[in-house]
Amino acid sequence: MYIVRKGEKEDLPQVFALIHELAVYEKAPDEVTNTVQMMEKDGFGTNPVFGFFVVEKEGDGAIIGTAIYYYRYSTWKGKRLYLEDYIITASERGKGAGKLLFEAVLAKSLEENCTGMMWQVLDWNEPAIKFYKKYGASFEEEWLNCHLQAEEIVAIVQNP
Length: 160
Known about the structure:
This protein is of the alpha+beta class. The protein has a single domain (about 1-160), classed as Gcn5-related N-acetyltransferase (GNAT) (Aminopeptidase, 3-Layer(aba) Sandwich). It is built from five helices and five strands, in the order βααβββαβαα. The chain has helices at about 10-25, 35-45, 95-110, 125-135, 150-160; strands spanning about 1-5, 50-55, 65-75, 80-90, 115-120. β4, α3 (about 95-110) and β5 form a beta-alpha-beta unit. The longest helix has 15 residues, at about 95-110. Keywords: Acyltransferase, Transferase.
């Protein structure tokens, strides 16, 4: 019913549409500033910084989900696979595609000799939390996410 495979450059327009779908679901559609062209460069250029899988409906080739990942290094744990985005289009959720996709990423983490896998989930996303609990995932409560945007970094560096 579903086929999971490594993502290809030609998949990026459909993957980018899924990213927008996720942003709408997470109530942040205006936060997406990435582009297909940036993803082509960053995923298929001379120094790729991410990889991804797609899941298709068997027979029609429509991409109905994606898992975008990269590697990070923990000084405490070593090489980790970081699952940046994990998206199944709304109409296909609960039908098994997500399980196949998630397990492909788990297998990739082992194939790449990672010491584990990490990701984030919004505290209000109960369906996702329930899904991850089925796998025995642990949830951290004491860490806070921090970030600076490029323009903020420029202001800091230029005005020390």
